[in-house]
């Protein structure tokens, strides 16, 4: 399956991590031992490609770390990463003991925001990580849509579509996170009827290498078939209602389908009820 994933939270963020922190803040550049640097437990990026990490480690062995790791100071003379966890991990693989850092002041909310922005800038987040990160900004930090739009550079409709993939079943989300199907495929899957087996359809996308357009067309065809079946069932039930109303002389309501349901017979007096019973007997 060819990769056709979206570009993540936003390729529109053009600044580097030393620019998207408060410009009025004094910046301290120094070095720190790797053992004194802690990963950000709220890092929106959950998966790190081992092959790419090894490539970066080899580059660091030759050229060193060209861009310092952005950190904030925490308890016990330790530092927490704001931006640059991938470089920190690669530095360990490269056998470094110290790395250059840039020290900033940032609270939890700002740290999470900046972590997103760094991953966004490098398009490092997969679509599920991206959606979960935006969801956390909204639910945990009460970010407005306007603020998220300002951070990401995305239009409101784009943000809505990014979040929509979280409506998919967990197993389908996993396929998107693993880049086996794209976000576009995921959104196309949401157009299928509610009782559709979305995981089965997702597996079919992978096996047959279906494009997003092909999935959308499949969804439309499925809806047409369902609509056609519904019309046929309605016609059948209507015929039954006419037969019963003619035989019993009363108003008939049928709830359900041609295979399962219930029949309601209306009457407005004891006389009418006895008349209906007589017809049935």
Q: Indicate the CATH architecture of the domain at 28-167.
A: Alpha-Beta Complex
> Number of helix segments?
11
Overall strand count: 7
- Enumerate the strands of the largest sheet in spatial order, edge to edge or round the barrel: 1-5-3-4-2
Gyration radius over CA: 30 Å
Category by helix and strand content:
alpha/beta
Mean pLDDT: 78
Q: Which topology of the domain at 28-167 does CATH recognise? A: Conserved hypothetical protein from pyrococcus furiosus pfu- 392566-001, ParB domain
End-to-end gap: 66 Å
What is the beta-strand fraction?
5-15%
Order of helices and strands: EEHEEHEHHHHHHHHEEH
Shape, principal axes of CA atoms: elongated
**Can you say what the CATH homologous superfamily of the domain at 28-167 is?**
Conserved hypothetical protein from pyrococcus furiosus pfu- 392566-001, ParB domain
> What's the level 1 CATH class of the domain at 28-167?
Alpha Beta
Uncertain runs are 1-24
Q: Helical proportion?
A: 40-55%
Sheet having the most strands = 5 strands, mixed
Features of the shown structure:
281 residues; alpha/beta; 11 helices; 50% helix; Conserved hypothetical protein from pyrococcus furiosus pfu- 392566-001, ParB domain; 5-stranded mixed beta sheet
Tell me what you see in this structure.
The protein has helices at 50-63, 85-93, 108-121, 127-139, 145-152, 156-164, 170-177, 183-189, 198-208, 212-248, 270-280, and strands at residues 28-33, 37-38, 69-74, 78-83, 98-104, 252-256, 261-265. It is of the alpha/beta class and 281 residues long. A 5-stranded mixed sheet has the order 1-5-3-4-2, with helices on both faces. The chain has a two-stranded antiparallel sheet with strand order 6-7. α1 (50-63) crosses α2 (85-93), α4 (127-139) crosses α6 and α8 runs parallel beside α10. It is elongated.
